[in-house]
Give the backbone structure.
Amino acid sequence: MDLFAFLYKISIWAIPVLFAITLHEVAHGWMARYFGDRTAEMLGRLSLNPLRHIDPIGTVLVPGLLLAVGGPLFGWAKPVPVATSVLRNPRRAMVVVALAGPAANLAMAVVWCAVLGAIARVNGNETLDGWIALMAQAGIVINVVLAVFNLLPIPPLDGGRVLAGLLPPRLSARLDKIEPFGLFIVIGLSAFGLFGWLFNPALRVIGRIILALFGSRA
């Protein structure tokens, strides 16, 4: 990939990715505060400033390399700390706290859909409109993919925490023991191409939404 093409891709994906991972983590922190844990607030992690949530590897290095090689874009931010012991009704609260992140991503996907729909209905500068439209499409894709991926029932992903909160305590304790190996499980599933069944339907839905939004332009 030449430098211009790489920088153009960065200009399209940077804002959607930064806000996708930032609001995902902030949503966890906001919900934890609602249930009585102010850890994230005291650490300044409820800020919408992306710099407070950037992980050098997950937010910069990995997405940059994937963009450079043309791979599927993925990344992560620094996890927001949650002190489970101080939450009101910890098991139920952790389910809601875990679901807050994917819910925030789905809400952002809706916002980007609105942006894309608005761009499809205006007749402004063609170059600028095209750039914003590509950014909106990127916002839809990254947020839906992050929401679906994080709902996988594998700790430490959000779906794993939801499952742990719904299972009986004994089974939940067994599931928690998987957490140190969760990342390796995810990498293994990805390496064998087993995520296609999960992401392909989501990407087809995204494609239909984008087609519907642009179809109304004519």
